[in-house]
């Protein structure tokens, strides 16, 4: 972008210089220069001005294209950053759920041990055992989901 801006400024300077030369040639009296010589110089200067104007237009177009590319890249970076934030938040929520389930599971294990110690003759109810297995299964599922989301986040980080 800076290179194109420099070219643009250089072209503008050249155009201004040629316009000034053109004005000075037009102000010279026709008596001092032969008519054909003045017209030849004028034609050359017009062609040069036209060429420089074309360069200026090309530089402006290239600059506009680069600015559009930069805007597209910025928008993509913002989108990736948002997605990264969303995944990070989801991961935090799932970590919290996992921790809560682990705490519930630990509590149930302690209750089971306490019941087993207090009532060695009584057996633990099948519903209690089933609930304990359900919670263990939920914890395992959440661990797997967390691992998968961490992989997605690391892939997004690498793609930046």
Write the layout of secondary structure elements.
Layout: H1 2-27, H2 35-118, H3 126-159
Helix pairs in contact: 1-2, 2-3
Shape: rod-shaped
What's the rounded overall pLDDT mean?
Answer: 83
Beta strand %: under 5%
From the alpha-carbon coordinates, what is the Rg to the nearest angstrom? 39 Å
Number of helix segments?
Answer: 3
The largest β sheet comes out as: none
What structural category characterises the helix and strand content? mainly alpha
- Give the % helix: over 70%
Question: Could you say how many structural domains there are in total?
Answer: 1
Q: In whole angstroms, how far apart are the ends?
A: 22 Å
Low-confidence stretches: none
Order of helices and strands: HHH
The count of DSSP E runs of length 2 or more, i.e. the number of strands, is: 0
Summed up, what is this model?
Residues 1-83, 125-159 form a coiled coil. With 160 residues, the chain is mainly α. The protein has helices at 2-27, 35-118, 126-159.
Structural account:
It is a single chain. The protein has 3 helices and no strands. The chain has one domain (2-159). With 160 residues, it is mainly α. The longest helix is centred in the middle third of the chain and has 84 residues, at 35-118. Residues 1-83, 125-159 form a coiled coil. Keywords: Coiled coil.
Describe the structure using short key phrases.
90% helix, 160 residues, mainly alpha
């Amino acid at each position: 972008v800076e290179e194109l801006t420099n070219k643009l400024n250089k072209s503008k300077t050249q155009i201004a210089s040629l316009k000034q030369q053109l004005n000075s040639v037009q102000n010279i009296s026709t008596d001092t220069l032969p008519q054909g010589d003045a017209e030849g110089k004028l034609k050359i200067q017009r062609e040069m001005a036209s060429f420089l104007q074309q360069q200026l237009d090309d530089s402006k177009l290239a600059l506009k294209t680069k600015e559009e590319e930069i805007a597209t890249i910025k928008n993509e970076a913002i989108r990736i950053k948002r997605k990264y934030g969303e995944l990070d938040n989801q991961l935090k929520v799932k970590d919290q759920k996992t921790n809560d389930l682990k705490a519930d599971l630990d509590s149930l294990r302690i209750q089971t041990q306490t019941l087993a110690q207090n009532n060695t003759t009584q057996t633990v109810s099948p519903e209690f055992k089933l609930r304990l297995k359900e919670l263990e299964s939920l914890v395992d599922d959440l661990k797997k989901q967390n691992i998968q989301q961490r992989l997605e986040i690391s892939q997004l980080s690498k793609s930046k």
